[in-house]
Amino acid sequence: MADLTRTLCLKTILVAVDLSPHSEATARYAVSFAKPFGASIVLVHVHVPVDLVYEFASEGAYEALDHQRQHAQQELGRLTGTLREAHPACQKAFLIGDPAEQVVRLAQERGADLIITASHHPGFLAQLLYLDQAPRIMHIAPCPVLVYHEGYQGVLTAPSSSPATQTASAEGEVTRKKIVLPVDLAGEPGQTVAFAAKLARQWGADLYVLHIYTAPPYNADAHYASAVPGIGCQRRRLEGKLLDWVSQLQTQHARTFALFEAGESPARGIQQVAANLHADLIVVSTHDRAWLAKYLFYSDADEIARRAVAPVLVFRAKPDAELSSSRDVNSPD
User: Fold this and answer.
1) CATH code: domain of residue 80
2) Strands 114-119 vs 145-149: parallel, antiparallel or unpaired
3) Which helix (H) or strand (E) segment is 83 a member of?
C-alpha cells in the first residue's frame, strides 16, 4: 500500500476556460477546490489564431476576428477580477495557439499540480475534430486533470473542525462529500489510490473504493458449465482483495468503504454508482494508449470524464516523482 502519511500538496492550479457562459461556474468551482490547499489559480484562455480559423479571410473578417480577440482578453480580465474578490491568489494568462497544447505547455512552465477544465459533452464528430479540448488535455497533461461538467451544482468544500460534525442540513441533505474511486484490482494499490485517499482525508469526505466485476460471456456448452465454479472462485478472490485494500486504507482514513458491483461495462457501471451515491467527485486513472485510440478518444477514462454526472479527476501516475512533493511557483500575470 502506498504511503498515505504525507499531506497532499497542491500549490498551483491551472483553470482552462473558453469564456463561454459556463466558464464562470467552472472558475468558481476551481476556487472552492483551491481554497483548502491555499493553492494559487492561473486562469488561462487560449485564443485560436486567425490563420487557423480562416485561411482566405477578407480584411473585414480579420478586423472582426481581432475585435473578438480583444473582447476575449477583456472577458478574461473581468472573470479574473471577479474571482480575486473571493480568492486573491488568482492570476490570468491569455495565450494564442492550439488550446490543448498551450494549456499543457503552460502547466509545464508553471509546475502546475492540477488542471481544471470543462467538458461540454460534444457529439462524435466534434470529438474527432478536437472541438472539445478536455479529452486532449487529459492524455498529454503533466499533472492530474479535473473535468468539470455543465449543470453540476455542488462544490468540494473544506470540512468543519471535525468530520463527525458534518451532519444533515436543515433540508435533510447530507453535507459530507463523497468521492468514488474505481479500481481494477489487477495489481497493487498505487499512486492513484494514495491520491484519492489523501484527498478524501483532507476534506473529511467519504471514499468509496469501487470495483466493477465483468463476468465472462455466457456459453451453454459443457466446457462453460465446468468452468462456472472457477468463475465464482475468481469473483470471491476479487471481493476479498477489495476488502483487503479498503481495510488498509481505513487505517489512514476511517471513512473508506468497499463497493463491489457486477456489470458488462465498467464505464457505465461507474457512472451509475456515482449517480446513485450523488457523488461529488470521481477519481480515475488513465494510461498511455496507442495513437489510433488517442485519436478516437476511446477509453473508459474518456467515457467517464465526458458522461459522468459528477466532476471527474483523471490521474496519471508519475514514475519518478511524488505527487505530494512541494513546489514553489510564483509567476506574475
Assistant:
1) 3.40.50.12370
2) parallel
3) helix 59-86
